[in-house]
Amino acid sequence: MNPLPDSQKELMAELIELRQRNTQLESYNLKLLQANGKLKEANNYLVKKFSRQTLELFHQQQRLFDVMDTLPVNIALFTPEYQVAFCNRTFRNRYGDAQGHRCYEYINGRDKPCDFCQSFTVLETGRPHQWDLVAKDGSYLNIYNFPFTDVDGSTSVLEMSIDVTEKKKMVEELRQSEERFHNIFQKNPDLKAIVRMKDNIILDVNQKFLDCLEYSRDEIMHMDILKLGILDNDLDLARSALLELEENNEVNLAELKLRTKMGKNIIVSSSTVTMNLNGEPCRVTQMRDITQEKKPEAEMERLDRLNMIGQMAASISHEIRNPLTSVRGFLQMLRSLERFDEEAEYFDIMIDEIDRANQIISVYLGMARDKLLILNPVSLDAIIKSIFPMILSDANHREINIVLELGSPPVLLLYENEIRQLILNLVRNGMEAMTSHGNLTIGTLVQGGDVVLFIRDQGPGIAPEVADKMGTPFLTTKESGTGLGLPVCYSIAARHQARIDFETGPNGTVFFVRFPLTTI
To answer: What local confidence, expressed as pLDDT, does residue 157 receive?
Structure first.
């Protein structure tokens, strides 16, 4: 066989190569057809799935719209171009079907966006915003705006507005009612208090209550009124009134004795009714201070007794002073004798005591009549120090410890002899109220506009029935007492434009003598 020429060989090689490439192309084409079939299947699956999701999303959207239609608030969706993209039934009932219209044109009849509108600020901040609006019909709206991103990525403003006109009217009526109650309560000329029934906790009191009972609001609020001490004088009567209140929802007392923070007693008439406050049973008590109405009766009795003292002192002072003068003269004569030199100190004490007895008689004489006092600048601390040895001697005999708490107050214009007598009387009363080994404190301080002298004992306290009549002549709880010591003190205090009050309890009593600084 003859060999092929070179050109034929090359042609044959190219033909073989073409066949091989054709075979490869057919293989690739088959693979493409197979891949295309799979893509069609995937596409059909995705189309069906997307259609189901779209339908489901549509149903969900419709359900959401249905829910929003049932809500009793105005809901709308605004585009950045101020068009109403959606509005619910409540919105349509109020403004009409504004969908597709610009809100400022359809709702407010304007040709440009409202300058007072704050709804579209959420597009700038990206945060929810709440604001209030008084609509053109006079209604009050609470408006809540939220940035909203739609499924296509566009941003809108979701707005929910609530008509709170009726609520605002109710709130305003309630505010006015509370203001009227507050004014009636706080500005009432009588004492008023609101107390919780279950635990007797004070919820509120008016200023008159605080002024009369000498408490600050912080001291008295949320305290148990039965444990505060103001009802201690008539605690049994108060408890009995509470029982009657629980049965009848109202109780009136013609006379009730109260004790102030400073120990002063006042008399009130009271009326109490029950009420619910914030769902809790409470009682409202109104009390009228009738102390001044009762005071003339007590004052007349006190004056009668003081006059009696004066008359008695005037009738017997001559008979007492003459013997005392004779005794004093003989004591002075005996003291001058050389044989009594060692006892001279005792003679001096006896002479001083006779002089003090004469001074006491003078004080008693002065109780029933006005007396011109010669006042001199003197320090209370100096007076206390001058009589301290005498006080200490008596205290040592009774095994009582004396404590001085002198505050170096300003000098006062005083009649020293009478102030000495006042201090000694109060100190002696304090000692007699105590058992041995206790402390009796004598002190001075400046409080407000007063210079205060105080004597504090550790006795059992003063019984309420005695405290009410404190300072009444001849009133005494001691077998050997005359009942004149405290009346003398009250009389001396009155001469110096001072006042006496006290605080008492089971752990002791403190007497305060308050001298006004204006007397300096």
So the answer is: 93
Q: Which domain holds residue 515?
A: 374-519
Rounded CA gap, 413 and 207, in Å?
A: 35
Which helix H or strand E contains 315, and what residues bound it?
Answer: helix 291-336
The predicted structure's pLDDT at residue 299: 55
Q: Are 258 and 213 in contact (CB under 8 A)?
A: yes
Tell whether 437 is covered by a domain.
yes
Rounded distance, CA 497 to CA 450, Å? Answer: 11
Range name among 2-6, 177-181, 504-508 with the lowest pLDDT average: 2-6
Residue 130 DSSP label = E
Calpha distance 245→240 (Å, rounded): 9
pLDDT of 2 above 80: no
Which residues, at least 6 apart from 241, have a Cβ–Cβ distance to it below 8 Å? 251, 253, 270, 272
From residue 143, how far is each of 131, 158, 166, 233 by CA, in Å?
5, 11, 16, 59
pLDDT at 439: 94
Quote the CA–CA distance of 52 and 291 in Å, as a whole number.
Answer: 90
Looking at 161, 195, 216, which one is the last position of a domain? 161
